[in-house]
Specification:
By secondary structure, the chain is α/β, with parallel strands linked by helices. It is built from eight helices and eight strands; from the N terminus they run βαβαβαβααβααβαββ. The chain has an eight-stranded parallel β-barrel, surrounded by four helices. The radius of gyration is 17 Å and the shape is globular.
Length: 251
């Protein structure tokens, strides 16, 4: 049976293209495990290492409450797709996958259609999905955030069904906040959440599948001043990339 998204707060740690060797990867996961497993009743922790380190880290996580995820997957199950990894290859030892991260959209030309196909394929293979949406700086400055984010949500849900909603998280990560030192305000996050809710409700109004259980998280760097997971509901969870700061969430 596919894993279902927990009603707990979600703390997702995307390691991006770090670290550069297997020994450091194992040291990193072992170093954060005491904190990552300290509050399983209030927060679900998932880590997203690079592909080469997934197997070794899966062995460390076995029997713990910490979930494992991949940073991307393709929409086909097999074939002549050099460099790609299919969701079927991840099923059974990964529980999560990130789809449509802003860096993949910005640097690799990932489109809304590609995100939709990947999301549907991952869900069909019993993976839970964090589907990322967010606007560029020019959209934010021009007051077009709502239009852009709503279009991304609509496109991303195009190939999904209502049965998928319990395993789908929409992560609002404004691209202007990635790697710039800028942090979305509480108002920005609330607006992103409202846009997600409005668009999923609009899908229902258009006689599309009902996505009432889709969760929302806000992406941001994990820093000591960020909210404690105990103060976050499922629809106000934290997703961050600075894994070494994980212990600060539990202090």
């Amino acid at each position: 049976m596919p894993a279902r998204v927990s009603p707990k707060a979600l703390l997702a740690a995307n390691w991006k293209m770090n670290p550069v060797n297997a020994g450091d990867a194992l040291d990193l996961i072992k170093g954060v495990m005491p904190a990552a497993t300290s509050n399983p009743d209030i927060v679900e922790v998932a880590v997203f290492p690079p592909y080469p380190w997934l197997l070794g880290i899966a062995e460390v996580l076995e029997g713990t409450t910490v979930k494992l995820g991949a940073q991307d997957c393709f929409w086909e199950m097999s074939g002549a797709y050099t460099g790609e990894v299919s969701p079927a290859m991840l099923t059974g030892w990964c529980q999560w996958v990130i789809i449509g991260h802003s860096e993949r959209r910005a640097y690799l030309g990932e489109t809304d259609d590609m995100v939709a196909r990947k999301t549907a394929a991952a869900l069909a293979n019993d993976l839970s999905v964090i589907m990322c949406v967010g606007e560029l700086d020019e959209h934010y400055v021009a007051g077009q955030s709502g239009e852009v984010v709503a279009a991304q949500v609509k496109a991303g849900l195009a190939n999904c069904s209502a049965d998928d909603s319990a395993r789908l998280v929409i992560a609002y990560e404004p691209i202007w906040a990635i790697g710039t030192g800028l942090t979305p305000t509480a108002g920005d996050v609330a607006e992103g959440r409202d846009l997600h809710v409005d668009e999923t409700r609009r899908q229902q109004d258009l006689a599309q599948p009902v996505f009432g259980d889709v969760a929302f998280v806000a992406r941001g760097p994990a820093r000591p001043r960020d909210p404690h997971p105990a103060h976050l509901g499922r629809n106000d969870a934290a997703a961050g990339g600075r894994t070494r700061s994980l212990t600060s969430f539990f202090s």
